Amino acid sequence: MPAFSRRRLLAGAAGLTGAGLVTAWGAGLLDRTPRPLDPHDALIGQVEAARARTGTIVRAALTPRPVTLDLGGPVVRTWGYADTAPGPLLRARAGDLLHVEVTNQLPATTSVHWHGIALRNDMDGVPGLTQPPIAPGAAFTYEFTAPDPGTYFYHPHSGVQLDRALYGVLVVDDPADPGAYDTEWIVVLDDWVDGTGRTPNDVLASLHSMAGMGGMMGMRGGMTGMSMEAYTSPLLGGAGDVAYPHYLLNGRIPAAPVTLSGRPGQRVRIRIVNAGADTAFRVALGGHRLTVTHTDGFPVAPVDTDALLLGMGERADVTVTLAGGVFPLVALAEGKTGQALAVVRTGAGDVPRADARPVELDRAVTTTGSLRATERVRLDERHPDRTHRLELGGSMMPYRWTINGATFDDARPLPVVHGERVRLQFVNRTTMFHPMHVHGHTFALAGGGARKDTVIVRPDQTVTVDLDAGNPGQWMTHCHNIYHAETGMMINLAYRM
Ligand code: C2O
Ligand code: CU
pTM of the predicted model, to two decimals? Predict the structure, then answer.
């Protein structure tokens, strides 16, 4: 059972109210929602008791703290879970109980959110909503059963902390599936600014102040004064609001890349995570085609492709049969200037240049929204009991992002009732793409589409998803552009009794 009472939770939520925008990601709802289902409601206990469990406990410890990272040249002071980015790899089997002690050594409150996991609500890591923020010097133990196999990640749900080195991968293995591959690589993509003269909080502040004085050009140009045109991706419309000095693959800049080694003929499963705050990545491996097998943890009808586009918060698993030689694995910062890179080595050859641009990047590009669920995980046909329309809006001047015209602090929670089939319609009225993420559930894209927890919604596009409301609690639903979420593009999917 969780180690704190409802009274403490409410005190934590109230304590956050005065703390200002930057720490408020997730604050301020419990007191306004009529009859919300409490994160400690007995119904949650019933759902927990019915979960399949292995009986195994997987123990881990995370210590968010100030660290110095060598990105492969640039040395940066930042905040991390380890002296590397990404943080420790956590690994469990479906049905295992994860027991993770988090000790906060940061000079700020923090939290850990388990992105994509349909876990018990009070372990979801949203300060002010599902737990009190973890104060500097304090500790909090997360304990939950991970129900579904797949590739997931963890990060704070506090301000713009995700845009530092506070992220790590959580892999949940399927005890029933050995997997049709010989080896596995984990590839984490990130856009990097911290310690290069600005922190993510500085970036947020300049987005606010540039909006105040500059207007569209200044905003789209981010920190470097690039033209609007330079910031547009034909695949996405828009391309983010921030020009980053670096793009990282497993914590390294492309001039000093990691090497992923294998043997010719081997089948590799590559688990790819976009942990960026404001950047979609287009991924390709020179000289190879990728077979996409999973997105956001769940299996899809396999698709062969040259390149794959992943928005912030999205994951994909691909398999590749390795050729002989040395190849660039490139993650292009979609619509921006720059890329991340790893070297894939199975034989002799020269290391690719930092700006290597394999032709595969410009051939067939698969977007995850076009993938289809496998039979086993397809959501059955059912008429929705309830439909919520989420109109995505916003402005650059002032810098402010909304759902149904309201920022998070003013938004009325979206009610759902346990057992319902719920339809969400994301209607994008902006010129920017938004990777929309729902906590605690895996939705289905309309008409037999992939099961996912994060989906890109392009400008002027409407994306319809269905979910079964089977995991009671209070669940954040938001854009995974951290600057959009932090300035308002977030709402609570709130189970009601
Ligand atoms: Cu990856 Cu609300 O988060
Ligand atoms: Cu957004």
Answer: 0.91
